[in-house]
Amino acid sequence: MPRIINTPQTTASPIATETAVPEITEEESPDERPTPSLPLVTGPTSSPVTETAAPETAIPSEAEIIDSKDYPEDIRKIVGLGFDLAKRDLNYKYASADPANGGLDCSGFIYYVLTKSGVKNVPRDAREQYVWVRKAGNFQAVLAQGEDTFELDALRPGDLLFWANTSRANREPEITRTMIYIGRDKTTKQRLMIGATERGTYKGRPLSGVGAFDFDLKVAEQEPGQETDSVFVGYGRFPDLSGN
């Protein structure tokens, strides 16, 4: 399940104490990821994982999602597998595409879920996943930053969502984050997505790890020292289960 990030509380005390400053980590880098052979992949990770407590579940059931009753069978399978991963208390773990490693990064989640669901030729890297969707001719660019934009009218469960870092020009496109859209919450009408991230929210509460998250056009607020926000660039349907 995703990690709930607890905000430290300050209490009065006659003795000064030091508060550890958490290590600042970036959202997923678009550098090339190793492509694992399913179901198991082993190997070192490129960055340490910070453990955080998760005292309660923050995973909706399919019944809590308005659109779930209309899921096609292939999308129901993908979302169901994503929910199963979200219940396994997994971290966000850079360069991992296998839950046996204790966590996944964002493109690793996409790679694992789609491949296990029977989708053919899924790229491992976030940038290559973006190119894959673009080449399929199913991509919808989003330039607006408002949630009511008509550019989201074609969004449907199962679409891949993509964010890019606007400050780096060494690669084109500079895709740094990807998720799977799953529909709207029945109670709040908030759009929801599923995947892996270090900085996300669920029902407005900060969360990290593998799980369900609020879908907003902008990612969570940047930590001090980080250069810029990643911005949402668009969404699209991956090639169908036949691999076409």
Describe the 3D structure.
- The protein contains three helices and nine strands, in the order βαββααββββββ.
- By secondary structure, the protein is of the alpha+beta class.
- It has a domain of 165 residues: endopeptidase fold (from Nostoc punctiforme) (Alpha-Beta Complex), CATH 3.90.1720.
- The strands form two sheets. A seven-stranded antiparallel sheet has the order 1-8-7-6-5-9-4.
- A hairpin with a 6-residue loop joins β6 and β7.
Q: What are the SSEs and their pairings?
A:
Layout: E1 3-4, H1 73-86, E2 91-92, E3 103-104, H2 106-116, H3 126-135, E4 139-141, E5 160-165, E6 175-184, E7 191-202, E8 205-214, E9 230-236
Parallel strand pairs: 2-3
Antiparallel strand pairs: 1-8, 4-9, 5-6, 5-9, 6-7, 7-8
Helix pairs in contact: 1-2
Provide a compact summary of the structure.
The chain is α+β, with helices and mostly antiparallel strands. The chain is built from three helices and nine strands.
* Biggest pleated sheet: 7 strands, antiparallel
Succession of helices and strands: EHEEHHEEEEEE
Q: What's the gyration radius in Å?
A: 18 Å
Kindly provide the name of the CATH class of the domain at 75-239.
Answer: Alpha Beta
Poorly predicted spans: 10-19, 37-57
List keywords for this structure.
single chain, 244 residues, alpha+beta, endopeptidase fold (from Nostoc punctiforme), seven-stranded antiparallel β-sheet, 3 helices, 9 strands, 14% helix, 22% strand
